[in-house]
Design brief:
42% of the residues lie in helices and 20% in strands. The protein is an alpha+beta fold.
Length: 190
């Protein structure tokens, strides 16, 4: 579809706004009926527009797609708009989530072998929160379920893809006496 450059930029902005969640560049190209490199060029232009002072939005690459989001500095203001569901993940849940993220796909018994304790409850909680999912079955005795992280995990932790996880050597000991809070955006408490 032939569009003037400003019209194409506006169309991309409208698509990102309407999607409300990460959308792949391939899908954007398909919808806009243009080539992927043209979409990437438009995304760079849109990032420059939002980088200007006085703008409240930004384009972020997350969950193997792109998304139009509020700038982080406006979170305190936006939190007054409505309550986001805040979930406190225990250290056990964070450890289990990290194991799944770095070792995926991984079985419960492999997670338990690393943690040294049963993980049934923690895995069920992470499944319920949509941070991990079943990713098939391992071709081994009993064909145990495999687990992997989800696009929601990438989105919440602001990762473009799994390769964006920090290297294990760069992670310092993050064991804390308190649980970490994870805000699940878009899920309103009643």
């Amino acid at each position: 579809m032939d569009r003037e450059p400003k019209e194409a930029l506006a169309a991309l902005e409208a698509l990102l706004f309407a999607a409300g969640e990460p959308i792949g560049v391939g899908r954007l190209a398909q919808i806009m009926e243009i080539e992927r490199p043209a979409v990437w060029q438009l995304l760079e232009e849109l990032k420059e527009v939002y980088a200007q002072p006085g703008r409240g939005l930004t384009v972020r690459e997350v969950a193997e797609g792109v998304q139009l989001v509020s700038k982080p500095e406006f979170f305190p203001l936006l939190s007054r708009l409505g309550k986001n569901r805040e979930v406190r993940l225990s250290n056990a849940a964070l450890e289990t989530l990290a194991i799944v993220a770095y070792k995926q796909p991984v079985t419960r018994s492999e997670i338990e072998g690393i943690r040294g304790v049963s993980v049934d409850g923690v895995v069920n909680t992470l499944l319920d929160l949509g941070l991990i999912c079943e990713a098939g079955r391992k071709q081994a005795l009993g064909k145990p379920l495999l687990y992997a992280t989800t696009a929601k995990f990438l989105e919440i932790f602001g990762l473009k893809d799994i390769a964006s996880l920090p290297g294990l050597d760069s992670i310092r000991d993050s064991r804390q006496p308190e649980a970490e809070a994870v805000t699940l955006f878009g899920e309103q408490e009643d």
